[in-house]
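G.,

No rush on this.
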Amino acid sequence: MTPGSRASGTPRDVRLCLLGYGNVARAFCDLLARQERQLADRHGLRLLVNAVGTRHGSLLAPGGLPPAAVLATIGARPAPPQAPLPAAELLAASAADILVELTVLEHDGAPLSTGHVLAAIELGMHVVTANKGPIAWNWRGIADVARAAERRVRFESAVMDGLPVFSLLDFTLPDCALLGFEAVFNATTNSILEAMGSGQSLADALADAQAQGFAEADPSNDLDGWDAAYKAAALANAAMDARMTPLDVARERLTDVPLQRVLRAREHGKRLRLVTSVRRETPAGVAPEAGSATSAGPIRACVQAAELDIDHPLAALSGDSLGVVLHTDLMGDLVVSELHGLVPQTAYGVYADILHICA
């Protein structure tokens, strides 16, 4: 099923159900409102929100609301104005074409968000999510269900905001196999390490990061390497058929990296970065078969502090910059990076995924 239907010369309606309504969802609705004319003129689309659901409230509009009306209706409320509904009930009542899954990250298998994705597919919806949990824990099962139902699941914003990593691999590198990657995935730890390189203690650097909005009130998910581990598993699962979970990623905690190590790297003309590395092992003397990332051995993944030469592409990333070096069989090594990994970029990744689905 192609989302919506379209009469000649008129935009076709595409109905969205939003699960989760935090900063990313608000930024996404704002982006849709600003792009309304562009969506109609260039893509022949009118995107309407039929439902919004959170744990604390819901908004059900069977006829569909323009995104600007959603923003006006919910406004500064802490939650949508109607009584909360169970996610399965809201999904069924929405009659949406696409689920936009923006709920908070879960640990221990991401059962709720994975359930949202699977329920939406079973109802005939495509899915766009910025939640890395389902992809990091359960991608193979989700992919099998989506393929059988002829539905599409896209998740560009799950790993590096809107930075087009999955789209790059899917649409611009035909027949290329991803053999591995190194990445700086986490803006919080990156900004803290940059501040420590100037002599700040970890505690002071963390306080500054929290004041600037890089770090959460509880930063343990970032400092303990879990955020990067989730992203490593998500990218490896979707792009390398790794069939791994975040528990398979070895982690070095930033709290275990002494200030002296950061300063010593600077003294030697290097930069310390918390680098996520994933690579498929190959038996000695055996080269991977071109075009097939599954012809070699098991995949190893880790998050660890690494001293990088100053001319290494990941060494140049500072503050809220993120980047990844992709190792491919046919195209060699590619570097993709963004200068600012913030909420607007995450919202754009969701927007781009919807356009890919509707193309």
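When you get to it, here's the other one too:
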Amino acid sequence: MGMKALLVLADGTVFEGRGFGAEGETMGEVVFNTSMTGYQEILTDSSYKGQIVTMTYPQIGNCGINEEDIESAGGIKAEGFVVKEACDFPSNWRLSGSLIDYMKRSDVVGIQGIDTRALTRHLRNHGAQMGIISSVGPDPAALLEKVRSHPGISAFDFVRDVTTKEVYRWEEGCWKWCVVEKKMAHAGVVVYDFGIKFNILRNLVEAGFGVTVVPAGTPAEAVLEMDPDGIILSNGPGDPETVTYGIENAKKLMGRKPIFGICLGHQILGLAMGGNTYKLKFGHHGGNHPVKDLSTNKVEITSQNHNYCVDIKSLHGKARLTHTNLYDGTEEGMRHVELPVFSVQHHPEAGPGPNDSVHLFRKFRDLIEGAPA
């Protein structure tokens, strides 16, 4: 059954449940994810660094863990995990272990047996906030004091914690039922790793790119010396304003090479153009968010994981809005009015989620092939 555990939010709300995974305490910004599946990809998504993830779907862990669906080097990046029920008897032909054992090996603290519907409603009404999970500290008052002493995730640059430390090539495509012929690379891209999801890299290979990944702090001059056909600014964790080196490099690269930004990369481009970003009340996290493409009027169901958005109006006409979120009308994409630069807030690579937006990788290839040499 697991030992007693507490989740204490910064506003003083307390949820009591049972611990699973590793024993101990963990602190982070508590958010909720509305995906029904894909918990392994979610936990290993570097964009969740600094956050505790709550799953709205009630039973998590049914399919166990496998070796193919990990989204980052080093495994789990989320600070903690909150579920209604953690399945301890998974069944799937691809599994290599259980979620509970995976969390123990990764030293990640979780809590189950709480009313995740009540928690989700609380976060929706009062906003995402810092919280602490503890299976070793039974005193709610002491835990509340700890969580209120935390400065919040905007005080940290989590990108430096999750980015690669060295340049590497990526050649793996998307997972398939059978072995297929290796795709020929028609163009080469350099990917800035701000917390890259492996499925972005897989989809770039599928779109016909040769892929080189570089650390987040790589100078723009060094990237230009590689002479890529295009540049990707990846997803990643935290407040985009803390990634000052990424913003400065983006300023230098715009106009020199075609650029495609995804999630945090989208926000960095907005700041590099002189715009502003703002924080959402509880963020967008899940695999079922409808986004309208304003150029076609088509609606795509998208995978999302972000707490910040670009204020398109603050760009004063340098970029035009290309996509909007149909849940709340927030900005989901933009394109520079003069330069071969575009970006989206949602995740076209899914992992987990639908593949409605995967065409954007081919769109970037088309942009490169049509760009002047």
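The chain has a mean pLDDT of 95. The two ends are 63 Å apart (CA to CA).

Enjoy the weekend,
O.
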